[in-house]
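dude i think i finally got it to work??
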Amino acid sequence: MELGYLIRGMVIGFSIAAPVGPIGVLCVQRTLNHGSFYGFVSGLGAATADGCYGFIAAFSLTAALGILSGIRIWFSLIGGLYLLYLGIKAFRSVPESRKNSTKSSGWISAYLSTCVLTLTNPMTIFSFAAIFAGFGIGNANQSYLSSSLLVVGVIIGSAIWWLLLSSAAGVLRHKFTTHYLRWVNRISGLVIMGFGGYVLFGMIA
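look at this
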């Protein structure tokens, strides 16, 4: 049944997004500073990137997999440096007044930053490829409709996780004073920089 592919895609997208990582830390930090919608938009950037990699895996684009594998070191370099940049930015960010509303340009920046960050993590595509293989997905007999529903499911599943995370963080937002938000920004920045350092260290280890 074709609908089964949509459901499986949702399960896979949710499972890929859920583990704690730099995107999750960013989502929580941005939600506490700017509100649930800002954090959710940040998560949607990651969901979009998950959909792109899900598309490659679902349609068995082996050529694209080969290219990504070949330039993996460059992806790691860009991703690691970008994580350091985002970590420093988060560390130095000053909590805004609750009355200040985030401009649409800020939402776009939040979306693009997490989308780029997820795209520069080549392990995402290999995770999708491994999971799809385990589910028996991505074979030559699979129809275009099935593959398309799978990709849509991945995006929906990932988006559901980011909606839940940003909503949960949003509930706690008003319990944080400006003083505590400064510490949230500093700790989040250090954690994100730690992820960046880990990625860069992995290139030479």
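The two ends are 46 Å apart (CA to CA).
im so relieved honestly
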